[in-house]
């Protein structure tokens, strides 16, 4: 893992370290931090090289995935607080800064359930669609049909939800950010976004937010020059077993 020097120069006194690689789960946190306007340092975790298995990283995230967050100034005044799982990190940041997650009981849980829906359904299904359509060594027709059908169903759930409201849970929230990073990849899901007009409008509305644009582009240059997955990266990313 290496600390991004440009981020360090931009925020030398930041209390937050974001252990990061530019993927949908990483974008959730970089977008939220940009929306909150709080300084942070990027710690590069190159998942293609296996940085996520380094002992120093495993002490922060025992699940050897990105992202992870370390807050060196938590609200309780105690020692640095390390968090993993993108949804948990989003709730922590929104709670700490009092934005994008309502304190009103019903609205708060409305947001929470859509965030959990993304974590348990939309994200994992989209990941399987990407894998079997783009990364599998050979076509697996049953898996392709299974996950393509399920992602279509999940888009339909979002379409119905957004048919009479601008955002998933009232005001713009962490649930919208969490879902947006996956829906923006609709071309990879072999779907026509125009078939879901309410969803398409929601997608465009969020994309127009300057902080979303900044967060989505955070450190994307780290991925440049690797348009295809190398055998070494494939072994790291797709051949993981318990260690």
Sequence of strands across the biggest β-sheet:
1-3-2-4-5
Q: What structural category do the secondary elements indicate?
A: alpha+beta
Number of helices: 10
End-to-end Cα distance, whole Å, is 19 Å
Shape: globular
**Strand/helix succession:** EHEHEHEEHHHHHHH
SS elements, strand count: 5
- Beta content comes to 5-15%
**Helix coverage percent:** 40-55%
Summarize the main sheet: 5 strands, mixed
Q: Spans of 5+ residues with little confidence (pLDDT < 50)? A: 1-10
Overall pLDDT level: 92
What is the CA-based Rg, rounded?
A: 18 Å
Task: Please outline the helices and strands.
Elements lengths: L1 E2 L1 H6 L5 E5 L3 H13 L3 E5 L10 H4 L9 E4 L9 E4 L1 H12 L7 H31 L5 H22 L11 H10 L13 H11 L2 H7 L14 H8 L5
Parallel strand pairs: 2-3
Antiparallel strand pairs: 1-3, 2-4, 4-5
Helix pairs in contact: 2-4, 2-7, 2-9, 5-6, 5-7, 6-8
